[in-house]
Design goal:
Number of helices: 2
Number of domains: 1
Structural class: alpha+beta
Strand order of the largest sheet: 2-3-4-7-6-5
Length: 123
């Protein structure tokens, strides 16, 4: 029950609707050690849900690189993100992680907006 209450609180606080991006295979890497973190499940211009094999902890800060799809002809983008929540996914040893974007360049933000527009037009 508490999980449902937490989810509704997250949904109410979210300012932008998230767009499903799981099928795009957007890989996310830790900039510090260049190790893979996982895949983008969904995203908006303010945050994303990461699908990962690592349990991450609320209030943690990540420096990430998100590989953009080749069809957009955009380079990878660097993002600073804050972990808002982490919950076990439906698959063993997999987690869903809610991230708030706290640092991104103007170029990176434009690339995300371009991706969101593409996904919205093709969903």
């Amino acid at each position: 029950m508490a999980e449902l209450e937490n989810q509704s609180t997250v949904d109410e606080r979210r300012k932008s609707d998230r767009v499903d991006a799981h099928n795009e295979g957007l890989r996310v890497f830790n900039v510090i050690d260049d190790q893979p973190l996982g895949l983008v499940g969904n995203l908006c211009d303010e945050g994303l849900m990461l699908i990962t094999h690592r349990e991450l902890f609320a209030n943690g800060i990540l420096q990430m690189r998100v590989d953009m799809p080749q069809y957009l002809n955009e380079p990878s983008i660097s993002v600073g993100a804050k972990v808002l929540w982490c919950t076990p996914a439906n698959s063993p040893n997999e987690f869903w992680v809610g991230l708030e974007i706290i640092d991104i360049s103007d170029t990176g933000r434009k690339a995300i907006q371009k991706l969101l527009a593409f996904l919205a037009a093709n969903s």
